Amino acid sequence: DLTMKNILITGGSGFIGSHLVRLMVTKYPDYNIVNLDKLTYAGNPENLKDIEDKGNYVFERVDIVDADAVFKVFEKYDFSGVIHLAAESHVDRSISNPNEFIMTNVVGTLNLLNAARTSWGSNFSDKVFYHVSTDEVYGSLGDEGFFYEDTAYDPRSPYSASKASSDHIVRAYYHTFGMPVKISNCSNNYGSHQFPEKLIPLMINNIKKNKPLPVYGEGLNVRDWLWVVDHARAIDEIFHRGKVGETYNIGGHNEWKNIDLVHLLCDTMDEKLGREPGTARKLITFVKDRAGHDLRYAIDATKIKNELGWVPSVTFEEGLSKTVDWYLENEEWLENVTSGSYRNYYQDQYQNR
Ligand code: NAD
């Protein structure tokens, strides 16, 4: 349908991307949503099983590091908007393999900017290039204070340094070429469909299986947790109504010390599984702290609230309870993503097309 607006979402088969694709495909039937994803270990088409047959959804298996392949996709569809989420996203993996993070997060973002710029020429009216980023670019806080949109960047892990680099390049394309860019920096997300290497699904999975619960250091690091569906709602607002050239911080005003969060998860799981109170807490095992582990992240999300009226839709207790229920009800998903069997299946599928 030539009258439909083509919107590119990169990384749509991942955790946050799949929630965003679901929201956009459902809420905007007059958009054609093109999901561009390489399907790394973190990308799982199964995450979009419920919407993949909708007429306004298309999948393109592309590696954003491959500039030619990215250009071809921009030639095939005349995109009016880009929402870029594809990234290597796990800090621990960036410590063991930094190079892949620079390639995907920095070079990949550059390739997308260049493809958009070539495809749009100098006609930027009604165009948006939206880069989804993290609060980790701001570095680490002490016990006090918050990250604001104008907090100086101070990334400390290869992951956050790669995201900071890409933010800077996106902003440079705004100032230098007038590209219509938007950036958001969000705190830690939790929810369904998150790869179980990340804290919350890892703990849920291990509690269920009575396996040790590894907690870094003494568990004193503080993170601000936001329900992934609320992040997707914020992205929708910023994409449509945020100001070009601006940054928006997104957060839940919901700070937890890791150890307190793990305790809460243990108690929630004991209750939901009908186990004796205190059972899961016995599984907690303190492990050597992550190298360069940032102490505390906390977002001031006043700007997005005042300008766009966005606030989280659920309390942490509600969001966490829904999340635990989802992992308990989707045992097969958990088994399959950890064993890599979906990945192999879809690898074959898409290779043979
Ligand atoms: P994720 O790891 O679950 O998903 C990343 C997706 O990107 C996967 O589908 C993967 O296949 C795809 N991808 C990776 N490399 C690619 C490449 N070279 N080409 C094409 N696709 C590729 O990540 P997530 O947690 O959903 O994060 C999405 C975005 O949001 C990232 O940019 C991340 O930096 C940002 N972010 C995440 C959080 C969080 O708490 N998870 C918080 C703030 C910001």
From TrEMBL:
Q: Which intervals hold domain NAD(P)-binding?
A: 8-323
Pfam families on file = GDP_Man_Dehyd
Does Metal-binding show up as a keyword for this record? no
EC number(s) on file: 4.2.1.46
Signal sequence span per UniProt? none
Give an example GO biological process. Answer: nucleotide-sugar metabolic process
InterPro entries named in the record = dTDP_Gluc_deHydtase, NAD(P)-bd_dom, NAD(P)-bd_dom_sf
Required co-factors: NAD(+)
UniProt KW keywords: Lyase, NAD
Which transformation does this protein catalyse, written as a reaction? dTDP-alpha-D-glucose = dTDP-4-dehydro-6-deoxy-alpha-D-glucose + H2O
In which domain of life is the source organism classified?
A: Bacteria
Identify a single GO molecular function assigned to this protein.
Answer: dTDP-glucose 4,6-dehydratase activity
Classification via PANTHER family = DTDP-D-GLUCOSE 4,6-DEHYDRATASE-RELATED
- UniProt record similarity statement: Belongs to the NAD(P)-dependent epimerase/dehydratase family. dTDP-glucose dehydratase subfamily.
How is this protein named in the record?
dTDP-glucose 4,6-dehydratase
Q: Supply the source organism for this entry.
A: Parvicella tangerina
